[in-house]
Amino acid sequence: MQLSAVVFILLLLSSAATLSNAHNITRLLAKHPAFSTFNHYLTITHLAAEINRRTTITVCAVDNAAMSELLSKHPSIHTIKNILSLHVLLDYFGAKKLHQITNGTALAATMFQATGSAPGSAGFVNITDMKGGKVALGPEDNGGSLDVYFVKSLEEVPYNISVIQISKLIVLDYTNGDYGLEDNLDGGLTVFCPLDDPFKAFLPRFKNLTAAGKTSFLEFFGVPVYQSLSTLKSNNGLMNTLATDGANKFDFTVQNDGEDVTLKTKSTTAKITGTLIDEQPVAVYTINKVLLPKELFKAEAPTPAPAHAQRKPQMHQNPVRVRTCLQHHQTHQQMHQLTTQLIKQLMKMLV
Ligand SMILES: *[C@@H]1O[C@H](CO)[C@@H](O)[C@H](O)[C@H]1NC(C)=O
Ligand SMILES: *[C@@H]1O[C@H](CO)[C@@H](O)[C@H](O)[C@H]1NC(C)=O
Ligand SMILES: *[C@@H]1O[C@H](CO)[C@@H](O)[C@H](O)[C@H]1NC(C)=O
Ligand SMILES: *[C@@H]1O[C@H](CO)[C@@H](O)[C@H](O)[C@H]1NC(C)=O
Ligand SMILES: *[C@@H]1O[C@H](CO)[C@@H](O)[C@H](O)[C@H]1NC(C)=O
Questions:
Q1: 171 C-alpha to center of ligand 4: Å?
Q2: Per UniProt, which keywords does this protein have (predicted)?
Q3: Is 238 in the same domain as 114?
Q4: How many domains in the chain?
């Protein structure tokens, strides 16, 4: 374990021992519906619990529109956690203090840094009083341009916690346009393909969906990151999909069940039954059931898997060509379109 991780854990233990849960960020933000997405992700990344354990902190929140912009890039939960942890400053900045920063500029340590995820010295946020009383924020290494602004104070519990709105997310934009965080480097694609029998049985209901519903439904089976079977086994938890977009979560939970890996939504649990392709950066697995996203199938009763669902899928046509194609189109947008095509193609073969 890294030293920073040890220090962090000690900090957590000591603060947990001495402090009561005096504030609850989830509850504080719940008073502001325009920040519900930000609030939701604080919870699912478990940052909310860390925030509640600490005092003398500032949470820089962004509204749902700003969160949608981030989510449209289909970041993993791990990336979202890194980004949001940069928005928790380990000092108390109420509106008044922000406008009275000594010498007009300061660097604030953040939770991103405290968790040891930050490469080098990254993870400080620069706060600068601009002319005209505007307060700007940005990464420490901002090359002279700070383009995120303090908008307003949302909640102040001096000097335990301050929650402020900022105009957009503070992004650590290193070299390649992504967030410069480790998990974004792998990229790739994972597709979970239902076997033919369950999908055939499901087809009338698929045809019943609206055009937008059909697209979201297909994209729901793709995850914008390469996941080997062993990664899936060791990385249980919530998984965003290509259909994840702002309030439309379209996510599922990956969970081990003995030696099996299952994918779960509210109404369905599907099991991975085979591997069609596993070559970085693409993996395609078969699943024994049509996983139903709760966004499209609200009050579904769980349905048992057909007994013959284990049959080997008849899938041999074009995976290699599709794979080569994918390797040459690594941007998310293109990946997104190609996946939709790939999934449609796979589905066609199965019908
Ligand atoms: C601030 O936190 C301390 C320690 O948890 C707590 O005792 C105190 O009541 C809190 N103050 C407010 C105003 O909530
Ligand atoms: C914080 O508030 C939320 C919503 O009211 C609640 O679900 C959660 O259990 C609370 N957390 C703590 C630590 O009290
Ligand atoms: C403010 O500027 C003065 C003079 O440059 C310097 O001595 C002092 O340390 C600065 N204070 C802070 C808090 O940066
Ligand atoms: C914050 O960024 C501004 C603009 O790049 C810079 O002038 C200032 O020195 C930085 N402040 C600190 C404390 O590094
Ligand atoms: C298709 O939708 C209609 C209208 O909502 C509904 O009555 C019908 O049962 C649906 N068919 C299937 C197969 O789900």
A1: 16
A2: Cell membrane, Glycoprotein, GPI-anchor, Lipoprotein, Membrane, Signal
A3: no
A4: 2
